[in-house]
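Subgroup meeting minutes
Present: P.N., E.W., G.H.
Scribe: E.W.

1. P.N. recapped why we're keeping a running log of single-chain structure predictions: easier to compare across weeks, and new members can see raw inputs and outputs side by side.
2. G.H. added today's entry (260 aa).
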Amino acid sequence: MSRIEDRRPVGLGTGAAPVGTPGAGLRPAAPAAAGAAAYAAQPAAEPGATATVMGIPETELTPRVRDAIMRLMGEVDQLRGELNRTRHRLAELERLADRDTLTPLYNRRAFVRELSRAMAHVERYNRPSALIYFDLNGLKEINDRQGHGAGDAALIQVGQILLDNTRESDIVARLGGDEYGVILSETDAQAGREKADLLAEAIRRRPLHWEGKVLPLDAAYGVYPLKPGEDPGAALAAADQMMYSHKLARRAGRSGAARN
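Output recorded in log:
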């Protein structure tokens, strides 16, 4: 795309004596938005000054040339406005491309990008960060018994709970289905496990109220410390496996408690 340069006339040069009425001189061209009235109201050039406007000598600035210059400046202003609107629209589309379609969170695409940045930060500054992988338990049962509207409401509520209980510097995303990811910056493995437990407890404390019913919510998690030079996909897979191990351990614990 060609670069649009601002070539508005900025004033009069100095040199030979002006032509026409003594002391009248040539006034500098005004911005297109100001119009002819503003142009005419500008002060006259000092005696002994001459001018070029956009490289055109004073003697060639006939009314027809002036009109052409004004039209050209108007077109430049219009193109500049269209360019700014296009930039704003592209920024909005980029923002929407990063958002989950259901919850107020990032989507998986944006999360993987931010995970790559977090891992680069760990490698460059040797500062810890932790990845939490959450899985919402019992969503299929909610969908089957209460309908997909209730399931969507559960997903939205869990996403909001995660947002409400993390810092602005942390990254929270819905990775797909009933799975969520959280990147905790400046957090080691132990602090990450403590935070994951607090987030899981916050989810349990807020059951879903749906059409007069109270539906309990629960989530399993895996916490994985980010390592320098590791692939983001490998880190996600490791956190997912740790989440699954945590889920199996909780099931075994509940089964043992039920037998006792």
